[in-house]
Structure formats: structure tokens, C-alpha cells
Amino acid sequence: MVNLNSFLILGALMFAIGLFGALSKRNAVAILMSIEIMLNAVNITMVAFASAFIGKSDAVGIPVGSRLTGQIFAVFIITVAAAEAAVALAIIIGIYRRISTVDVGEINLMKW
Amino acid sequence: MDIFSNPVQYAWIVAALPLAAMIVNFFGFRMLDVLTRPTEAAEQANPDAAHGDSHDAAVTHDEEAHGGHGDDEHRDRTPFWASVVGWIAFGALVLAFAYSCVIGAQFLGWFGYPSNQHLLNELQSKGVTFHIYNWFNFGPLVYNIDFHVDALTVVMLVVVTAVSMLVHLYSMGYMAGDRGYSRFFIELSLFTFSMLLLVLGANFLTLFIGWELVGLSSYLLIGYFFSQQQPPVDSEVPWAPPAQVKAFVTTRLGDFGFLIGILLLWVTTGTFNFTDLNFNTKTSATGLTVALATTAMILVFCGAVGKSAQFPLHVWLPDAMAGPTPVSALIHAATMVAAGVYLVARLFPLYATVAGPESLQVVGYVGTFTAIFAATIALTQTDIKGVLAYSTISQLGYMFAGLAVAETNYVGIFHLFTHAFFKALLFLGAGSVIHALHDNGIGAQNLRNMGGLARWLPITAFTMLMANLAISGIPPFSGFFSKDLILATAYERGYLPIYYILLFTAFLTAFYMFRLFFLAFGGRGGALGGLWGGEYRGVGQPHESPLVMTLPLMLLAIPTIFAGWLAWNNAFGEFLTGGEITTPFVNPFGEPLTLVSTVVALVGIALAWAMYGLRILPVNAFTANPIGAPIYQLLKHHYYIDELYAFIIKYVVMGLSQGAYLFDKYIIDGFVNGLARFVRGLGSLTRRSESGFVQNYGAVLFGGALLLVIAVFFAAGVFTR
Fold it and tell me: B338-390, pLDDT tens digit by residue?
């Protein structure tokens, strides 16, 4: 049965996969892709919660999620992700031009 | 006008006059004086003289540096604006003196005073306090500038303004043509204002402001020749720049104790006010034990020791003779050094009734010891001002002894009163002698270069003779009454050691003062057995000083001769203490004790006459034999006190400070630096964790977030549900 929990589990799994990729991949472009996966995991969670609570009220009778908050957030995140991808790719290209690699194992400029 | 109908109310005017003169002169006429000087080009041509007023600095003859005169091209006339400065300062002092006399008249009930009998009664018993200004309040600390006027204040006001006025007049002649003429008068005004503020102050705060200002102005005046670049040729003459620092630092040493004493009294009684302290202080009620009060009063006396040049802080006063001679007369004979005596007299009820008897005993024995100690040094000095300097120290010792042995403070204050006049006269006379000789290219201050001066300086010689007779205690001169009062009080109240020491000091005083007189004014072949005129050992032709200088001498001779009679029938004592003298007046001429002290003084004079006038008793008889020679050397070098202090400072103080330096460098700094080095070492270890790999940072970030989530779940009871 497909209910809210299924979407949440999917979101959590996608987030964990993305996190693992972001922390373990050596290629900067792959890390960027992993981050996109994490962002989309959040989007799924947002939309799932929003659709699950439409038309419901909380204990004191205030409507919950009636204003499409989750969907709006998801659209924002997609936009921000696009912008972030553009900036991140620019940074990666800048780093590549400078030290001829996109292997994060060899990039330690943020050291003491 | 109210100013004249109730002058006590306006006593602040006396202090305000010299202050106003100083301000007007400093910001007005001195500027004009400096601006109108035709010396810009001359100073450029002569680089030595290019330090403002420091014109005396570069002179090669020490007598020029000490005579207060500049180079020949400047010395004839005082510039116009400079003389305006002098006249304004003098005029302010004349007015201040006149007003002091008016206040005195109100006290005595003369000229139709009192208009207010109640006020007069209050004045004569305890005096009145006038609130001038509330400086600031800080919790229980109330800082008021208050003036207190009682009989003691009036006596001091009259003495200070009278002597200062005459010194101003005298300085117009003595300093004539000096480059620093206007500066000199401004500093004199500042000094007079400070002393009047000190005398008028109703609480420790006001007094202390005046006290320190007196120290400052004496620093300025002693260092009048501040740019003397090398010590004077005559080794007995002090050198101005070190002397001014010495005077300031030495008196500061005493002030340190004074401050602690003030604070002790404040902490225990909660007041700075003299009237409260003197008449309303109860030991034990306010946490002030007798031992604490005694300690506080001895500490306050430390300030007096510094300011009044008592042993062991007397060393600054002989060196203070580096200032021009009128300064010596004003500051170091009549007024500033009297500040310490005044302080003890002002707090006398506190000394006598609240504190234990030890406090006054300390005062008395320090004074007595200083009296004989300084008198023995004065026997051998050949610098005319040096003799007078040690004589001043000795007489100040008399004053402290007089305060300590008596029931009330009038015995010491009366000697202060008479001494101010005759000592000022002696110093001004010495200045006149220096003025007479300094053109002649010899050491003008050295008694060896004088002799027979009475022939050329009859007025100076005669007035000096009057002052000598007064200080020696010959009846009926003023010093006789005041000194005899101290001696008689000491004897009758059972202070026999003090009596005998002071009696012997009286003999020494008569001897050294007449030694000075015979060496300067008399000598071999003079009239009256060498008293008047005689062989002149200097060169050139001495000349009598102008009237502007001899007039103050003549005016000072009047109180020098007659001031003693004020003590007749205890008049002075009753005036000062509000009629509380219990001891009946004894006619000093009818008392065997007086006879003893007079004979002792006459023996001293006779000895001086025999040795230096008649020359029937050679000086070598005392100084050349195996016993006398070392004593002579000891006295000649002032008991080597200066050398002892130099040794102590060089080895003990510098050694201690070297130790403190090393302690600071290796222990304190070592600890602090070690701590810093430890932190740096720790940092160099932990900075290894900053690898620079973004993924490490991300792992730590999310690991931390995970830990937080687990912690929150744990706290919310997710795992235990």
C-alpha cells in the first residue's frame, strides 16, 4: 500500500544515497550529482507531506498545509538547485583550469 | 560694603588676588613681554641662549648664574612689559596684605568691629568655615573646597602676605633686567596663592591641593636657572636642575606618609574637615583606636618632616638655595617650610587630645634633634646662603619642639611668626650682599670673599645685625621672646633633655650667626673690635643695593625688632587660642631661666667675636688638632648624609630594583610567556585535524547532525518507548 510512509522512506533512502555519494565520490562532478539527489530527496519529502495534509486541520482547528507550502518549497528548491549547479560547475571549471584536476582528494586549499 | 563690614566672610579674596595676578600676567603681560623682546636675532646669533629664558644657563661665571643677572647687554633695564608684570604681582600682594590686616582687625575687634558679636565669639573660639565649592561627591566621600578662618589662619595670612609682598618689592631690584623677570613674578604669584590656599583650607583636601601646589611652585622657583648646564664653579653652591628635582622628590617622600595618614583618618572618622577632626573626634566611637590615631598623626607628621625639612628629609633645603635669593627668603625661610609647622599646629588638638602622647613626642624629638644637627652643620659652612639654610632647618626644629612641649600650639606658632620676619630679613640681606659682589668676578656667595662689607653696605649690615641679634635670642629682639618661650615651656613642663639640647643649640645659633656676620661685614681692623667694617678679602668695589632692595630690609627690621612684644602678657597666645591660656604670664626679664639662655647666647656671640672679629682665638685651634679636624670634616660635609643617601640609592635601592627586575623578567614574564607558548603548542597539535578536504568536513558535519538527532530521539524517549 502506497501511503505517506512509503514516500518518506523513499526520500530518506535517496538522501542517504546522495549523502554517501557526496562524502565518498572523488570526482567533483559526481559529488555535484549526489548533492542533486539529496535535494530531490528533500523535494519528495516536501511534496509527500504537502499532499498528505491537504484539507486537514490540527487539534485546534487551524488548516494544515492548505496553502500548497510544500509544493512551493519544492519549486524553490528546484530553482535553487539549478542556480547552485551553475555556480558549482563554474567553480569546478575554475579549479580545473587552475590545478588541472577535479579529484577532490587532491584539492586541499581550505587547509590551515 | 559687605566686604569691609564683615571681611572674614570674604577671606577667599586674599588667595584670589595673587591667583588673579598670576592669570592676568601669564596670559596677558608675559605674552606681551615675550613678544616684544628684541632678541630673536640675538638668540639666533648665540645658540646657548636660545632656550627661552634660559639665558643664565650658558654663563661661565657661577656668580652670574646665581646673582640672578644676565649678560651685560640685558641687565641695565627691565623691559616695560616685564616691569608691568612685576608691578601687578606686587600690587595684588599689597591688596592681599591689606585685606589680611583688615581681617585681623576684625578678629581683634578694632575699628568698630565686630558688627556681629555672635560671629566674633565663634571666630575667636573655633573659627568659622565657609563653603566655597562642592567639587564632587562619591558615596560617602564628599569633596568640598572649604575655607576656614580662625586666629591661626589670620596669623598665617598676615605673615605670608607680608613677607611675600616685601619679597616681591625686593625682587624688582634683585631681578632687574633678568630675562626671566616676568616668569619669576608669575611663579612668585603662584607660590603665594598656593601657600594662602594651604593656610585657608578647612579640610585635608583643600590643604593638600595647596600643599602640592606649594611643592610645584617651589620646584619651579628653585629651578629658576633651569638651564644651567654645568654645576657652579664653587662646589658649595648647589646646582639648580638637580636641586629642583631633589626638592620635589624629597618632599614627595614625606607626602606619601602624609597621604596614608589622611586616608587612615578618613577611613576611621569619615571626614576631612579639620574642625570635625579636632573637636568632635572620639576614639573608639568611630573605630579610631588610640594606637591608630597615633599612627595616623605620626604619618601626617611625615608630610611635615618633608615640607619643613626635618631630619632625615632635610637634604633638599640646602640645595634649594640654587634658586634666586628672594626665592630662598620667601619659600625656604618664611613660608613654604612653615607649612609643615602650620600643619601640626592646625591639627594640634588631634595630636594633643585624641592621639597618644607618643605622637607629640615624635614631633618634639625629631624637631630637637634636627635643631642641634643642623646647627652643628651651620658652624662650618662658608656659603652665606648655606649657613642660612641650615639655620632655617635648625629653627624649624625649634618650632616643632615648641609645638610638642606646650599645651597649646601658640608656642611653636609664635616662633614661626617671628622667625618668618627675621629669617626673611637674613636671606634678603644675604641677597643684597650677593648683589653687591656679583659684578666683581668672584664667588659672590662665599664668605671667604667677603669681609668689611659694613663700610659699603651700611643699611644691609645694620638690618642684618638686627636679624642676627633676633635669631640669637638677645633681648629685646623678637627671637628672644619666641625662643625663650620654647625653652621655658620645655623646662617647666619637664622636657629636660629637649631643654638642654635646645639651650646648647641656642649657643651654637648665636655663634654661627655672628660668625657669618663677622666674616661678611666685619673683620680684622674694623670698628668696634672688628664688628663694623674691616679687611675686605674680595676684589673690586662692592656697592649698596638700590632703595627698592633696602626698603624691604628696613621694613622687615621693624617686626624683627618689635614683634616679640606681641607675646607680652600672653597676648599672642590668647589671640591664637581664643583666651584659653592657663599658664600665667611670667615676665621673661625677671626670670633666672631667661638669664641663662641670654648668657648662653652672649657666650656664643663672644666666642664668634673672639674668633672672627678680634681674631684673638685662631680658628685653627679648633680645626687643626687631631680631635677637631675629623669633626670639622664631618660637619663640613653635612655628616655625609648626601653621600649616605647616594650610597643607599646606588647600592640598596638599585640592587633591590635589579632584583625586582630579574624577578619580573624571569618569574612573572616567564609564567606569562610560558602560558602563551603552551597555548601555541596545543594549537599546532590540533590544527592537524584541518585537512582541507571538503569531504572530511562534510562527514564531520553530518556525523555531528546524526549525533544530534540521536540525542534528540534519546531525550524524547524514542528508543525506550
Answer: 899 999 999 998 888 888 888 999 999 999 999 999 999 999 888 889 999 99
Q: What is the DSSP letter of B133?
A: E
- Best of B682, B687, B693, B697 to disrupt the A interface (most A CBs within 10 Å) is B693
Say if the Cβ atoms of B698 and A107 lie within 8 Å. Answer: no
CA of A23 vs chain B CAs: smallest distance (Å): 5
Q: What is the pLDDT of residue B579?
A: 66
Output the pTM of the full model. 0.78
Which chain A residues contact residue B701 at CB under 8 A? none
Concatenated DSSP letters of B143-200: EEEEEEESHHHHHHHHHHHHHHHHHHHHHHHHTTT-TTHHHHHHHHHHHHHHHHHHHH
B446 DSSP assignment: B
Q: Is B594 left (phi over 0), alpha (psi -120 to 50) or beta?
A: alpha
The most confident of A17-31, B48-62, B73-87, by mean pLDDT: A17-31
H helix intervals, chain A: 4-24, 28-53, 69-99
The answer to whether the beta carbons of residues B509 and B473 sit under 8 Å apart is yes
Q: Tell me the DSSP string of B592-629.
A: HHHHHHHHHHHHHHHHHIIIIIS--S-THHHHSSTTHH
High-pLDDT (> 70) share of chain A, %: 90
Distance of alpha carbon B65 from alpha carbon B225, whole angstroms: 7
Distance from CA of B649 to the nearest CA of A (A): 54
Strands B128-138 and A63-64: unpaired
Q: Which of B156, B162, B147, B149 is nearest to B106 (CA)?
A: B149
Which residue does chain A place closest to B701, by CA atoms?
Answer: A23
Cβ–Cβ < 8 Å for A32, A59: no
Name every residue whose Cβ is closer than 8 Å to that of residue B377 and which is 6 or more positions away in sequence: B390, B635, B638, B639
* Chain B contact set for A23 (CB, 8 A): 695, 698-699, 702
Set of cell numbers at residue B431: 641677597
- Give every CB contact of residue B114 below 8 A, 6+ residues apart in sequence: B106, B120
